[in-house]
Amino acid sequence: MGRPVIGITAYVERASWGRWVDVPGALVPHRYVRQVEEAGAIAVVIPPRLDADDSTARDLLERLDGVVLAGGVDVAPELYADERHPSVQASRPDRDTTEIAIARMSAELDLPVLGICRGMQVMAVEAGGLLEQHVPDRVGHDEHSPAPTVYGSHPVHTVAGTRVAEILGEEVDVPSYHHQSVLTHPGYVASAWAPDGTLEAMEVPEARFRLAVQWHPEVGSDPRLFEALIAAATPTRSRWSRPSRG
């Protein structure tokens, strides 16, 4: 059957290379690509589109074996009916629209998904959950995001009996870069916590692989979450044999 194909969500950003300056490009940090490839899969970049809907997402996902919902800017608070905190970053409607649809349709298709940081928040919002818009207001420190472009490091404690605990063990130190977190997560089980009470992982136990973490495993040296995603995508890869929708 060959290697599984894993889509990674991305930005459209203005970028420069060679003599080309300030040109719109579909971009994702290469660390995501490297982790997916080193885990044994083929990585493809999913550019966002403002007109994405469930049909578009389904057409995409039926051609993939799994998805990484990547990190990025804050999810628009309007999507979970909350007033915007002063710290919230400028919204990216193209990513919000595309990734909410991917989160919804991947659940319907039971396609393996790993949500990372923003990706975890997208999955919670799509399910009807709420976000904590500025974690330092509650915890009183910046450990989760010490400074711009600087990753923090802290332990997380997994919940016994969850898939996250099965993959990572009872405790693990993680690279962290977020100022928001998930408050409520309908349909998901909490599977890891930071010492300050911040939710660090959630999952759907009955799904083939539907798991999200608040930290950034792509920047660390621990490949186990990516390996678990690829393992879940590999045995049941069947995009050429999925029945037609008629």
First and last CA, distance: 25 Å
DSSP helical segment count: 7
Strand order, main sheet: write it out. 4-1-5-6-13-12-11-8-9
Residues in β-strands, percent: 25-35%
CATH architecture: 3-Layer(aba) Sandwich
Instruction: State the domain count.
Output: 1
CATH class: Alpha Beta
GO molecular function, one term: gamma-glutamyl-gamma-aminobutyrate hydrolase activity
Keywords: Glutamine amidotransferase, Transferase
Protein name: Putative glutamine amidotransferase
Organism: Humibacillus xanthopallidus
Task: Give an account of the 3D structure.
With 246 residues, the chain is an alpha/beta fold. The chain has a single domain, classed as Rossmann fold. The chain has helices at 30-38, 54-61, 93-109, 118-126, 136-139, 163-168, 224-233; strands at residues 5-9, 11-17, 20-27, 42-46, 66-69, 113-116, 131-132, 152-158, 171-176, 181-182, 189-193, 199-203, 210-213. The strands form three sheets. The chain has a nine-stranded mixed sheet with strand order 4-1-5-6-13-12-11-8-9, sandwiched between helices. The protein has a two-stranded antiparallel sheet with strand order 2-3. A hairpin with a 2-residue loop joins strand 2 (11-17) and strand 3 (20-27). Helix 2 (54-61) packs across helix 3 and helix 3 crosses helix 4 (118-126). The chain is globular, with a radius of gyration of 17 Å. The two termini are 25 Å apart.
